[in-house]
Every structure is written in structure tokens, then in C-alpha cells.
Design brief:
Largest sheet: none
Number of helices: 5
Mean pLDDT: 95
Low-confidence stretches: none
Structural class: mainly alpha
Number of domains: 1
Strand content: under 5%
Helix content: over 70%
Order of helices and strands: HHHHH
Length: 153
């Protein structure tokens, strides 16, 4: 599987986790949020370390702007995650904070599946897109495990 197809599959998993967070309460909500947080941390880290630099090497003009926008949206999502992670789920603003995060993530995932996918397919060969996956998965697993340890304290 190449990066573009993998991304679509992974986004489905993230959307399911976000739905689980919204439908859960108490400890289950926190656990679902932490699972989402750890997985997205792994995903974002792998994109930032492996995918985005590769695309930035070859991109120019509008294509480069798409990559830069994806990076900035990661920063925004990471900030919102850190705010929610420090907020008790009993706080009256927790659900509102999560709702904002979900909107940001859904927008970002849609753009990755549309705009970034077009850029990646334009700039990278099928072989390059497939080769990205080995490195991507290694970084993803490593960073996800680190975040899970950090969350558990």
C-alpha cells in the first residue's frame, strides 16, 4: 500500500475514534481520547519527519504552499490536543474544546486526502509513495508508543 491510500484508511480509523470519544462518558471518554491522541501523534510525527520533507524537496509554488499549510494545521491540532489533555473531562468546556479539535482534524484530513494527495501523486512516483510507507510506519509506531507512555505518566 502506498502513502496516499494508507492515509485514507488511517483517517477512517481516526474518524471512528473521534466518534467514540463523542459517544463515551467518563473514563471511557478519556481512554478513547488518549488513544486518538497517541495515534494522531504518531501519524503527525511520521508525516512531519518522513512525508512532508520529501514533498518540500520537490515542491514549488502552490504545491509547496499546500505542504506548508498541512504543517501549520498539524501545529494547530497539536496545540488543541495539548489543551484538551490538560483539561478534566468533567470541565464544562471539555466537549466544546473537543468539538473544535474534531472540526480542525476533519478539515485537515479532507485537505490531505484531496490537495496533499494530488501533490504527492504529482511529485512522487508510485515506487516512492510505496517506499515512504516503511519509514512512515516505523516513525508512527515509535512516536505513538512514546505518547502512550507519556500520557500514562
Amino acid at each position: 500500500m502506498n502513502y496516499v491510500n494508507h492515509n485514507v484508511e488511517e483517517h477512517k480509523k481516526f474518524k471512528d475514534l473521534m466518534d467514540q470519544v463523542e459517544k463515551s462518558e467518563g473514563k471511557k471518554k478519556v481512554e478513547a481520547f488518549q488513544e486518538l491522541f497517541a495515534n494522531l501523534h504518531g501519524h503527525h510525527s511520521a508525516e512531519e519527519e518522513i512525508v512532508f520533507p520529501k514533498l518540500k524537496e520537490k515542491a514549488e509554488g502552490e504545491d509547496l504552499e499546500v505542504v506548508k499549510e498541512m504543517i501549520e494545521e498539524h501545529h494547530l491540532g497539536n496545540y488543541q490536543f495539548s489543551i484538551i489533555n490538560r483539561t478534566s473531562e468533567e470541565n464544562e468546556t471539555w466537549d466544546a474544546k473537543f468539538s473544535v479539535l474534531k472540526e480542525v482534524l476533519e478539515h485537515h484530513m479532507d485537505e490531505e486526502e484531496d490537495e496533499l494527495a494530488k501533490v504527492a501523486k504529482k511529485l512522487l512516483s508510485t515506487e516512492e509513495l510505496e517506499a515512504l510507507m516503511d519509514e512512515f510506519e516505523k516513525v508512527y509506531e515509535e512516536k505513538m508508543k512514546e505518547k502512550k507512555k507519556e500520557i500514562k505518566g
